[in-house]
Design goal:
Layout: H1 7-18, E1 27-30, E2 43-49, E3 67-73, E4 76-82, H2 93-96, H3 98-106, E5 110-119, E6 129-137, H4 138-144, H5 168-180, E7 187-194, H6 203-212, E8 216-218, H7 222-230, E9 234-244, H8 257-266, H9 268-281
Parallel strand pairs: 1-4, 1-5, 5-9, 6-7, 7-8
Antiparallel strand pairs: 2-3, 3-4, 5-8, 6-9
Helix pairs in contact: 1-3, 5-9
The structure holds 1-O-phosphono-alpha-D-ribofuranose and guanine.
């Protein structure tokens, strides 16, 4: 096989995990930069650091602890990735999504992807939350799609339709959650653009992404969503807007990761409330 991982490797990681935890989650949650606080509310938690799972890739970015957290949230059995993997850490794209393939092998059928993202849409404000309606896979469009390489049909099909990557029913449920919690003023919906990073965008790049139809931008999520859909999982995505992209040379501010983490911390409680209520209102088979 060319670009991996092999079905056997994924199965073997899942078997290792299943032998060590009692929980059998149907829902997986990926915590974005600075958004790991969700894991603090997990009841009856079982925690596995990535470094203690044979062949599992490890997180190296501040704000990503690198732990799988199994347990109960809002009455649902879940597994959280407290820390994700990014290409700019040096991983090939396929390797960043090994945990998603492992989640499926563990029995997960629905996945919530959260991220910290820059706002491209000028109507957005820092602290808004954007339900991901669609994405632009910039690496994929330029030949680095996460599904590049030999395809193993046991994972999914060679050619994958990606319209409706983000489950319409889960999006509708989440919109209602914002309303019910009185947080409608923070709710946005739009298109997330994945860039490779680790550089934040230049002014010219931000203008390009806007012209492409992007509403938010970050360095993750899209490959995870594609791989999850490749295996037939239901996907929901939510971006916390941590800063606004510079569309003018006159107002150029310098985004920092510290700023991203600080907004994550500031908005942690609202984000947690939304995800928890969404969990409560989501039915899984
Ligand atoms: O997408 P998450 O993991 O939330 O992290 C976002 O925040 C980091 C930049 O501050 C980048 O890794 C970007 O992708
Ligand atoms: N501008 C910008 N802000 C972010 N916040 C989190 N990720 C990003 C990104 O890729 N770009």
């Amino acid at each position: 096989m060319g670009d991996g991982p092999s079905f056997e490797e994924v199965s073997s990681i899942a078997q290792n995990i299943l032998g060590r935890v009692k929980h059998r989650p149907k829902i997986g949650i990926v915590c974005g930069s600075g958004l790991g606080g969700l894991a603090d509310d997990v009841q009856d938690a079982e925690i596995l650091p990535y470094s203690e799972i044979p062949t599992f890739p490890v997180s190296t970015v501040p704000g990503h602890m690198g732990k799988l957290v199994f347990g109960i949230l809002e009455g649902k059995t879940v597994v959280l990735m407290r820390g994700r993997l990014h290409c700019y850490e040096g991983y090939p794209m396929w390797k960043t999504t090994i945990p998603i393939r492992v989640m499926k092998a563990l029995g997960v059928t629905t996945i919530f992807l959260t991220n910290a993202a820059g706002g491209i849409n000028p109507d957005f404000n820092v602290g808004d939350m954007m339900i991901i309606r669609d994405h632009i896979d910039l690496p994929g469009l330029t030949g680095e799609c996460v599904l590049r390489g030999a395809n193993d049909e046991r994972f999914g099909p060679r050619f994958l339709a990606t319209v409706d990557t983000y489950d319409p029913e889960l999006r509708a449920t989440c919109k209602k959650v914002f309303q019910d919690l009185g947080l409608s003023q923070l709710m946005r919906e739009g298109t997330y653009v994945m860039i490779g990073g680790p550089t934040f965008e230049t002014v010219a790049e931000s203008r390009l992404l806007k012209a492409f139809g992007g509403d938010s931008v970050g360095m993750s999520t899209v490959a995870e969503a594609i791989v999850a859909r490749h295996m037939g999982m239901r996907v929901f995505g939510l971006s916390l807007i941590t800063d606004m992209c510079c569309l003018s040379y006159d107002t150029a501010n310098h985004t920092t990761h510290e700023e991203v983490l600080a907004i994550g911390q500031k908005r942690a409680e609202d984000l947690k409330a939304i995800v928890m209520r969404l969990l409560k209102d989501t039915t899984v088979e």
